[in-house]
Amino acid sequence: MKKIFLGTLLMLSFIYGESRAEVERLIGNMFMVGFFGTNINANSQITKDIKKYNLGGVILFDRNPVNKSKPKNISSPHQVKTLSNNLQKFANGRLLIAVDQEGGRVQRLSPKNGFSRKYSSPSQIIKTNNFGEYSYMAKELNSVGVNFNLAPVVDLAINPKNRVIVGLGRSYGKNPKVVVSSATKFIKSMSNQGVLTSLKHFPGHGSSLGDSHKGFVDITKTWQKSELIPYQKLIDNGMVDTIMVAHVFNRKIDTKYPASLSKNTVNGLLRGDLGYSGVVISDDLQMYAISKHYSLRDIIKLSINAGVDIMLFGNQISPKKILTTKKLVDTTYSLYKSGEISLSQLKIANDRINRLKGRL
């Protein structure tokens, strides 16, 4: 009787396609989420999400947007290592654990929470030529179980009035050759320690005037094609693990949607014109450049249809907009059931993500 029942299930699966649980696990692999807690156990919500939905990744932050008196995920090297080990235990070693560790103003693992040093910003390191810092940074990330660094920034410092990239020293400069050379050294240092990287912010954020954390950013009049050079060179040189797409709007590329939601930008410009075939990750889709203008359903639908593989929801921008993994997966499954996204799109994205994870 048991064999007949199993045979019937297999036949139904063949006729009707994947079960809901199977589709949800494909969907879950496409999300990277922020969560609250410096330690976890089998009963933690993030643990349940990893096991049920095959969650693709998590992103760790030091600053807690809900309770500023407590750290969100990072309080000490020992604590982060224990947290990472436990996360991987529940994920069977298949979880992307990410931080933003650029150096300078963007450094989640810092001396204030017990880590070894304050790393130079990209603009500082160009002046000192001390690229050896990146080897120490990579070793430190690896030592605490962080396997994905959302860096380097390859935006060109085109606009001196740019506050979010140039003003914060996050760019290696306006010369594409210098940016490519510097980013290559960063990537090689990370790779030597088994840490994946992400070029950002495609198709270029260094010419903008606004900050996409705070609202709509239009780069139509300021963006230059030279901003694509670092991406093209690094793709051609086989130096790219992933590429992060920005929330900037460029009417010359897409008259309707910002880059992170734009098929013209991701599948057209990046995958088509530049020949990139790897993983594309969104910038945080809760940034106000996106979340103030689109519903969650439209954000997910447009991202997947644009060609984004990993959708990042950091739960970091506003304490009033905490999104659960269940909400993200349920919304995406509803889009799949309605035919607004396809099973083949989910499988293609999963193939890319799993190949990336296979390199860890």
In round numbers, the mean pLDDT is: 93
Strand content: 5-15%
Number of helices: 13
The overall number of domains is 1
Q: Order of strands in the sheet with the most strands? A: 11-9-7-6-3-2-1-12
What general outline do the C-alpha atoms trace? globular
3D structure, described in words:
By secondary structure, this protein is of the alpha/beta class. The chain is built from 13 helices and twelve strands. It has helices at residues 2-16, 20-28, 45-53, 77-91, 122-128, 133-143, 176-192, 229-236, 263-273, 288-291, 296-306, 325-337, 343-357, and strands spanning 31-34, 57-59, 96-99, 101-103, 106-107, 148-149, 196-202, 217-218, 242-245, 248-249, 279-282, 311-313. The strands form three sheets. An eight-stranded parallel sheet has the order 11-9-7-6-3-2-1-12. It has a two-stranded antiparallel ribbon with strand order 4-5. The protein has a two-stranded parallel sheet with strand order 8-10. Helix 2 (20-28) packs across helix 12 and helix 7 crosses helix 8. Mean pLDDT is 93; it is low at 1-15.
